[in-house]
UniProtKB/TrEMBL annotation:
<dbReference type="InterPro" id="IPR029069">
    <property type="entry name" value="HotDog_dom_sf"/>
</dbReference>
<dbReference type="Pfam" id="PF13279">
    <property type="entry name" value="4HBT_2"/>
</dbReference>
<dbReference type="InterPro" id="IPR050563">
    <property type="entry name" value="4-hydroxybenzoyl-CoA_TE"/>
</dbReference>
<keyword id="KW-0378">Hydrolase</keyword>
<comment type="similarity">
    <text>Belongs to the 4-hydroxybenzoyl-CoA thioesterase family.</text>
</comment>
<dbReference type="InterPro" id="IPR006684">
    <property type="entry name" value="YbgC/YbaW"/>
</dbReference>
<protein>
    <submittedName>
        <fullName>Thioesterase family protein</fullName>
    </submittedName>
</protein>
Amino acid sequence: MAGKEIALDIIVRSTEIDVNGHVNNAKYLEYLEWGREEWYEQHDLHYDKFEAMGVNTVTVNININYKHECLQGDKLTIKTRPEKIGRTSYVLKQEIWNQNGVLCADALVTSVAMGIETRKSTEVPAELRGLFGAY
């Protein structure tokens, strides 16, 4: 069964604003992380499940495009969906949309499956691989 797109809604808070009066670029990465965590949770891939499989996932690359500024009080939706999978790595596509339907950022996030004991890359577990459908 292929994984579905998961959406997480958040509101921009004052502590996320920089001296330019908009969301600091580093906060977008945090928003994306929250979206990925929600994606895993909604697909029943909690940390303890990965631990039982002897695997961790490690983010190794984030390619982000900043498209539109976000402001304090904006209601944002972080969308996460499976994009591509290899033997030991996989890519999630993520988008951040504001309440007006404007795409604020998009990103391709590459992660690697890592053996907990070996601390080396290992095959993506079947439970995760199955979420990528035809890829």
